[in-house]
Amino acid sequence: MPEVAEKITIALTVNGKACKANVEPRMLLVEFLREELDLTGTHVGCDTTYCGACTVLMNGAAVKSCTMFAVQADGAEILTVEGLAKSGDLHPLQKAFGDSYGLQCGYCTPGIMLSAYQLLSTNKKPSEKEMRKAIAGNTCRCTGYQNIFKAIQLAGQKMRGE
Amino acid sequence: MLGQLGDEAKLLAGGQSLIPLMKLRFANPLHLVDLNFVGGTSYVREEAGTLRFGALTRHAEIENSSAAAKVPILHDCATGIADVQVRNRGTIGGSLAEADPSGDWATVLQTLETEVRCLGPKGERTVALADFIQDAYTTDLAHEELVSEVIVKMPGKGSGGAYLAFKRSAPVYPTASVAVQLTMEGDTCKNAAISLGCVGLTAVNATEAAAALRGQTLNDRAISLAMDAAHAAADPQPDMRGSAEYKRSLVGALVKRAIDVAARRANGEQVEVSHIYA
């Protein structure tokens, strides 16, 4: 009979805010974000490391938060979809997804925006091939991806100041 | 630490295979020892004709490493593993220590001279990759040992390689994959290594396919013999990705394409390839 593991204290930064918590070692990062911090914009799609709906940025790198334990984010900086808008103004990515009809049901959108965020952080004018590679780990069952590519390009354009 | 925790403890590297396996209850470790907080375990170093990878070097770091790019087959492998998110977490040492028959690194590294450094309470030892991976999910590692470094000998001048996989989508394991490393002198193949992934309990070292090329001009006949030998060497399991015969045919086709790219790279041509998606 497995014993119940002791909780572990973690300290991390989520969307720019420092937070401290006591978590069970088996708790996944996505569960921590959704259930402990109430940041429900990060979605659970497949729970098998396939669909990318749970994608967040950890220290600037896109990761699947269903495939990490919360304790592994100790000391890290996490960015979720809730951290994209700044003082009420939508991030260019959020604005572009709306303007380009880059979403339909919206379930995959937070994850795709964060994968796109990593891409645009080093390359604000990505080719279609680069965009495909960047969001290959994110599944969208509505849009057929074309408007998502348009949205990423539009966001890049805005971020370049055009 | 593993000694104290006993048999039910497991090491956690990138976690991109172990955590999904735990969710499926295929793995039920009582204790996990997370290696991610150990410093100095993630690097790519070029040293005395070798490339040295720290065990926790992420696939993404290798994908973006200029040192690793000097050996194109390594770049093919790193950049083609799953998707951005998995490459940001998954590690080369974890991939070898897991020894999943569908893993990419073992298939690729088998075509190069690769050694695995293992660290344990009794000290360090170096094992050739061929002796390290013993069976599906089984390595030469003792319970209290871990992989500390992966050492790859840089192929000489006139050597080029390619790694190609056939996949249904980016995040899934390949249906089949092929790694080819050739040493060319003009049109003649001086040396060859061919390795097949996902079509056996471990990566298959297709020695007869390689022998069909060695000393030969790479014409249709030689390539066709290598394809036939690879087809025969593959021992795939039928599953949802395809029947055994389908996978064998796939291996033949991938061998042909990989030979073409490897030979062109060996002759100094820059060739960009990516995996083939269904």
Please give a handful of descriptors for the protein shown.
heterodimer, A: 162 residues, alpha+beta, Ubiquitin-like (UB roll), DNA polymerase, domain 1, 2 domains, five-stranded mixed β-sheet, 5 helices, B: 278 residues, Uridine Diphospho-n-acetylenolpyruvylglucosamine Reductase, domain 3, Enolase-like, domain 1, five-stranded antiparallel β-sheet, 12 helices, globular
Overall description:
The complex is a heterodimer of chains A (162) and B (278). By secondary structure, chain A is an alpha+beta fold. Chain A folds into 2 domains: 8-83, Ubiquitin-like (UB roll); 92-159, DNA polymerase, domain 1 (Orthogonal Bundle), CATH 1.10.150.120. In chain A, 31% of the residues lie in helices and 15% in strands. Chain A has helices at 29-36, 92-99, 109-122, 128-134, 146-159, and strands spanning 8-14, 17-23, 55-58, 61-64, 77-79. Chain A has a 5-stranded mixed β-sheet with strand order 2-1-5-3-4, covered by helices on one side. In chain A, a hairpin with a 2-residue loop joins strand 1 and strand 2 (17-23). In chain A, helix 2 packs across helix 5 (146-159). Chain A is globular, with a radius of gyration of 16 Å. The relative contact order of chain A is 0.16. The model of chain A has no long low-confidence stretch (mean pLDDT 96). Chain B is α+β, with helices and mostly antiparallel strands and 278 residues long. The N and C termini of chain B lie far apart (45 Å). Chain B has 2 domains: 40-153, 2-Layer Sandwich (Uridine Diphospho-n-acetylenolpyruvylglucosamine Reductase, domain 3); 159-277, CO dehydrogenase flavoprotein, C-terminal domain (Enolase-like, domain 1), CATH 3.30.390.50. In chain B, helix 11 packs across helix 12 (244-266). Chain B has 12 helices and 14 strands. The model of chain B has no long low-confidence stretch (mean pLDDT 96). In chain B, the strands form 4 sheets. Chain B has a 5-stranded antiparallel β-sheet. Chains A and B meet through strand 4 of A and helix 2 and helix 6 of B.
